[in-house]
Each structure stands twice: as C-alpha cells, then as structure tokens.
Design goal:
mainly alpha, 21 helices, globular
C-alpha cells in the first residue's frame, strides 16, 4: 500500500525556499568583492543565515592593508628574491664552471643562465593562461613549481656534463620557477588595488636585494666547497623558506565557480603593441651592463675581479631603490611619464657616464649607481600600464586579464634577454672610429654602448603614444582613484566570468 512520503521526516527534505539560497550566494559574492566590507550589501544574507541557523562565512581579508595583505607582500618579496635571485647570480656559477672540471673543457656554459632566465620569462603567458583557464588550480601550481625547483637543483648537483646542467639548472629550474612566480603576481593584483604600483615595486625590488647578497654567498660557498654542496644546500634553503611562505601567498578573492574561457583581446589593442615594442627593445639593452661591466673594468681599466663584482653589486643595490621609487610614484603620476623619465635617465647615463666618462673606475662606479636607479623600476611600470590597457578595452566592452598581459610583458622581456647574448657577442667584433674615440667608445665595447643606449631609447614609445593620443588612459586620476571603485570594476569582471 503506497502513501505520499512526508518530506519533513526525511534527512534531505526539499527546501521550498531554495531561491533564498541563491540570493544568499549572490550577496556573499558581492560582499567578498568589497574592499572596505560595507555590510549593507550583505545584511539580508547575514540575517537570513541567522534565521536558518547557518553560520556566517568569514569576511574576505581587506585589500591594500591589514596583516593579511602585508604578510602576502612579504611572501611575494621572499619568493621573488629566492626564485629570481638565483639565475640573476649565475655569473658566479659561470666563472666556477669555466675553471673547474668536469665542465671547463666543454662549451655552452653561458646557455645555462640564458635558459634559466629566458625560459622563465618566455613561459609566463602560457602559465598565466593556465591560471585563467583553471583558476582553482593556481595554488597547486605554486606547490608543484616549488617541488620542480627542488628536484632541478638536486639533479643539477649530480650533473657530469654541461648539457646536464642546461636541462636541470637551466630549463627544469625555469619551469618550476615560473609555476611559482606567475600565480603570485596574479594574486598580487587582487591584494593591492589603490597601492598596486607600490606593491609591484616592493616585489620587483627583491631581485636587486637578492643580487646584492646572493652572489657573495654563492661565491663563498664555491670557494670553500664543491658545486654539489652549494646546489644541494640552496635546494634546501629554497624548500625550507618557500614552503611555509606559500601558506600566506594565496588569492584574496574566491575563484570563479565556472572556469572562464581564455581571453586574448589584448593582442588586438594598439596601446598594448606600442608599450610591448618599447618593452622588448628596452629588454635588449637592459641586461648588457650587468653582463659586461666586470669584463670592461678588467680588460679596459685593468681592475681586479673584486672591483668588477662590486660594479654589479652597486647596480643591484640602487635598482632596489629604483623599483621602490617607481612603485611609489606610479600610484600618483601617469605611468607613461615615469617611463619617459626612466628612459631618458638610462640613455643619458649610458651615453655619458659609461660612454664618455668611464676612463676611471670612480666614474664607472657612478654609472653603476645611476643605471641601477633609473632602470631598476622598469618592470614595476607594468602594473599601471596593464590598468591603462584594461580601461581602454573596458570602454569597448571587452575584458583584459591582468595575468595574461603581465605574461606578455614578461615574454617581451624574455625575447630581449635571449637575444641580448648573441647580438652583444657579435657587436664586440667591431670597433667605432678605429679606436681613436674617448672613453668606452674607443674600446671594443664602444658599439655595445651605442647598442644599449639606442635600444633603451625605444622604451619612450609609451610616452610618445600618450602624447599622440594612441594611449589614452585616465592619467593621475585613475592612479589615485578610490580603491572601492576599482574593486567594484573588478567585481563586474569576475561576475561576468561566473
């Protein structure tokens, strides 16, 4: 004999108020995207939960301040210093491998460092696309990347040939490093809105900070121990320091419940290609001084190896100030103006201080200090240039993902990094004016100085595009706008994905 079931007696009853669940979800989502957590939008949600006896979810951490945001920024700084500082200090390993068996008799040692940095730059847009397509996996990418870096360093300590090092200390390390680094930059875009440029500046300054300390630490280790001991020790340092830090390096906002489709709209924007062209050419010349200043000091001025190393250390030390200064100014002035100042300062220092006045080590030290200061913040400008591109595309009804644009800028920088080596070696075979010119122009490095200055000058394209009206943006008003307005803009973008 059948009877109509009484749903109230079942453990999973049908909820006649199901629509309120959905409304509660929407209210909570809106609440999680508010920077100052004004509860007016979620009052009904909280009251409804209390009536139903359901616990209220914990508020999302505040953007642009608070312990969570500053801990996150400290984590980004540490990861940047550990992951990028190591390949930027490869010159120490290159000197060791070139003079110690079993690698000294083989060629291609420089390719190890090129792969470590170049691959990490070039892979960035692909990892950013993965983060966009599968946003819930972003923290897992960091964990997997850390394990890959650890394995790469351990494997490189057992290498017997240069090609082993290319695959481990070069390519494999770069793959793992990119998986850690790219998601943290995407998270950074969520944690800092009004102070975005400053946050990027603090993060980018970590490379210079690491570049001041790490080369001496690695050089001391290689002088007193073998490369196996140094690589194994560094693998443990990275694992022990980065592992706990990944706990605080996390997204501030909830990941979309539905993975959004990949969006390549930025590749069709004029503003992007203007800035990217300047960015790529600037990358061609950017790495030249840090690579060749020690060699120039030794071969032209007869300086010692310690004096040459000091040149790079001074350059890295002031690049910290350059990154921090550019980040602070980027939140108050139009970013193309800052790019113009950086470009002019760099070109002037290259042509005058290195090209003309570098007949003594004193002036060469001055050049290192000035060059690091005016170029150290170039990557920091990406935070605001991305916002400009997003604003222009939003006016056309199109969305642009922060992570993808950052990845493209990284790729442009990587192209410059990879091509810098072979081009500079080719230029060293030519002399300017038969060697009768002053300063560095009269040496074999003369053409290299001109190449550095000219390629860096192309970085002014962003400012020229702004003056021509091709890059509009919203100027200082956009940079100093209220954070709540910017978060609401991001709320609309994320809501469209969901």
């Amino acid at each position: 004999m059948s009877s109509t079931p009484n749903t109230s007696e079942h453990s999973f009853p049908i909820n006649p108020d199901f629509k309120f669940d959905f409304e509660c979800y929407l209210a909570d989502w809106s609440r999680s995207l508010s920077q100052d957590y004004d509860t007016s939008s979620s009052t009904r949600s909280i009251e409804w939960r209390k009536e139903k006896g359901i616990s209220t979810p914990k508020e999302e951490p505040k953007a642009d301040g608070g312990s969570h945001a500053w801990l996150f920024l400290a984590g980004c700084f540490t990861i940047e210093a550990l992951i990028w500082g190591f390949p930027f200090s490869f010159g120490v390993f290159q000197n060791y491998y070139s003079t110690h068996a079993p690698f000294s008799s083989e060629g291609g040692i420089a390719v190890i460092g090129t792969c470590a940095m170049g691959v990490m730059y070039l892979e960035s847009p692909f990892i950013a696309a993965m983060c966009q397509r599968w946003p819930k996996m972003r923290r897992w990418y960091c964990i997997v990347g850390l394990l890959i870096v650890f394995v790469a360093l351990v494997a490189s300590s057992f290498s017997k040939h240069v090609w082993h090092l290319i695959l481990t200390q070069g390519v494999l390390y770069a793959i793992g490093g990119g998986l850690i680094y790219t998601p943290t930059i995407i998270f950074l875009d969520e944690w800092f809105v009004k102070r975005k440029s400053l946050a990027f500046g603090v993060t980018m300054a970590a490379i210079g900070f690491s570049g001041v300390i790490l080369p001496f630490v690695l050089a001391w280790g290689l002088d007193h121990f073998s490369h196996q001991v140094v690589l194994l020790s560094w693998s443990l340092v990275v694992l022990i320091l980065s592992g706990p830090i990944l706990y605080v390096v996390k997204p501030r906002l909830p990941s979309p419940s539905i993975s959004p489709p990949l969006n390549f709209a930025v590749l069709g924007t004029r503003a992007f290609w203007i800035i990217q062209t300047g960015n790529t050419f600037q990358g061609l010349g950017f790495f030249v001084p840090s690579i060749y200043l020690p060699t120039y000091a030794r071969e032209v001025l007869g300086a010692s190896g310690v004096a040459g190393t000091l040149l790079v250390v001074l350059l890295n030390s002031t690049s910290v100030l350059g990154a921090l200064g550019t980040g602070a100014l980027g939140d108050h002035f139009h970013i193309t103006t800052i790019m113009c100042i950086s470009t002019i300062g760099t070109v002037a220092s290259v042509f005058l201080l290195w090209g003309v006045a570098s007949s003594t080590m004193g002036w060469l030290y001055v050049f290192s200090l000035v060059y690091g200061l005016v170029t150290g913040g170039w990557s920091t400008t990406w935070a605001r240039t991305i916002k400009i591109i997003q604003n222009e595309e939003k006016a056309k009804g199109r969305q642009v993902e922060t992570g993808l644009v950052f990845g493209y800028f990284m790729m442009g920088r990587g192209v410059g990094n990879v091509l810098c080596g072979p081009i500079s070696e080719l230029l060293l075979t030519t002399k300017l004016g038969n060697g009768h010119l002053v300063g560095a122009y009269g040496s074999v490095f003369g053409v290299l100085v001109v190449f550095t200055g000219v390629t860096t000058l192309v970085g002014i394209l962003g400012w020229l595009g702004k003056q021509a009206g091709w890059i509009r943006g919203e100027g200082v008003e956009d940079n100093m706008s209220d954070a709540k307005t910017l978060v609401n803009d991001d709320q609309s973008e994320i809501a469209n994905k969901v």
